[in-house]
């Protein structure tokens, strides 16, 4: 048996026909939906980009323990586990974070990998930096230079990545006894730039700044026309990625892979496009717009074209891939295989999901209620991270190691001493933790009665019930003991 996992970064479910939005053209996701199980209760785990990949790679949730960073010495990454079992593994990606500080070792265990250059802030092209007419947005200088290479539609990122992935299948599907292909496509992540043909179909009358496609994170004072244009740019990028996802599906048709190959199409998180007056992925409440995500899973023999209400998060996809390939996880994980759900043997495999950003709200859902627990103290203390690498994204700044650092057996599943580093409020600011927003308090929503999450039930008797269930889930999964104190759950 074989497996393919496609991760489309920042894919909003409420922009997809499969989830009730008929205005955005995604014919190939619709084509896949006819062969797959579509999950209605898929949620993010650790966020944003690289924390989700560590969940997927290792099967263990990261966000309670540390922020964005590289794989740890104790991790058992999925490609390493599969390769040890005789599976030929490949990675095709334009997600440049996999090749920079904070993500520099996620690709190294694959038997083959291909890096498609030029996305967002990838340091690819030198030379003079073109001017940009950005309006109320911005465009990074590196992207302005990289964009000069996008002369035709097939020069853009998603077309190049999916064509490379289709080529990988042509070269390996019939030559390898078993294979796993990871396609980490960074679209539709910002910048929301794509050939004009695609965004014009959603905003044909735009006459504003030609390079207004990259909104800043946080609150933005956009006019209705500007907000509509950014959403049109995003929709255009979704449509472009979908068009070239079709190339991969075509190769599966040509090679007869549907009968022996599992295919997962997932995302790491959504992207705020004005919902609840937020833009991007700032330190803010993780509403459904960003946390309740699309998920399509094809497994040979599963009922095609069906939907599932089962709760699922990223670590479950790690468990599902191993289970499908007949490979045992070499160490305990947080994930649960979805194969019993996919095969109709069970309606659910878990009763709750935890999700969030490190140092921010800790979120819990059972599919009906969503509880976003804020810190109990305005200084967000005590907060620590646990690592042996001290590697994070270039725009964040991890403190230490210094005289505060302790090494010990702090993680029950880890058979080595681990570094524990406390973080001050001043250091939190350099890690993009917004204490003022967190001081706004906890939020609780009943999705059955209030799917738009407009009526906060925190402070009602229901909150005590959800807080107790959150605490029980944290205790069952395991988390740093100071998290209970930070959240006021002692």
Task: Write up this protein.
It contains 14 helices and 19 strands. It has 490 residues and is of the alpha/beta class. The strands form 4 sheets. Strands 1, 2, 4, 5, 6, 7, 10, 11 and 12 form a 9-stranded mixed beta sheet that branches. Strands 3-13-14-15-19 form a 5-stranded mixed beta sheet. Strand 13 and strand 14 form a beta hairpin. The longest helix is centred in the middle third of the chain and has 32 residues. The chain is globular and about 55 Å long. The termini are far apart. The mean pLDDT is 97.
Low-confidence stretches: none
Cα distance spanning the termini: 47 Å
**Share of β-strand residues:** 15-25%
Determine the number of helices (DSSP H or I, runs of at least 4 residues).
Answer: 14
Strand segment tally: 19
Please give the share of residues in helix.
Answer: 25-40%
Query: What structural class do you assign from the helix and strand content?
Result: alpha/beta
Global geometry:
globular
